[in-house]
Amino acid sequence: MGSEPEKLEVSTDSSPGSEQTPSPLVTAFQREHPEWVVEVIEALGETTVVVPREHIRAICAFLKTWPETRFDFLADVCGADRGVEEEPRFEVNYHLFSTTKYHRWRLKVVLNEENMHVDSVVSIWRTANWHERETYDLFGVLFDGHPDLRRILLPEDWQGHALRKDFPLRGYEPYSLK
Amino acid sequence: MGLENIIAEALPEVLTTRLDSLINWARKSSLWPATFGLACCAIEMMNATSSRNDLARFGSEVFRASPRQADVMIVSGRVSRKMAPVLRRIYDQMPEPKWVISMGACATSGGVFDNYAIVQGVDKIVPVDVYIPGCPPRPEMLIHAVMMLQEKVMKESVRDRRDILEVEAREAMVPGTLPITDGSTARQNTLPESRPYTIASRHERRRSS
Amino acid sequence: MTLPAQFEVVDRPLDTQMTISMGPQHPSTHGVLRLELVLDGEMVVKATPDIGYLHTGMEKLFEYKKYQQGIVITDRMDYLNPLGNNLAYVMAGEKLLKLEIPERAQTIRVLMCELQRIGSHLVWLGTHALDIGAMTVFFYCFREREKILNLIEAASGGRLTPSYFRIGGLMMDLPAGFENRCKQFLNDFAHAVDEFHTLLTGNKIFQKRTQGVGYISAEDAIDWGLSGPCLRGSGVALDIRRANPYSGYENYDFEVPTEPDCDVWARYMVRMRELKESHKIAVQALAKLKPGPVKADAPKVVLPDRQAMKKHMDALIHHFLIVAEGFDVPAGEVYHPIEASKGELGVYMKSDGGPKPSRVHFRGPSFVNLSALPDMAKGEMVADIVAVIGSLDIVLGEIDR
Question: Is pTM, for the whole model, over 0.80?
Answer without folding.
Answer: yes
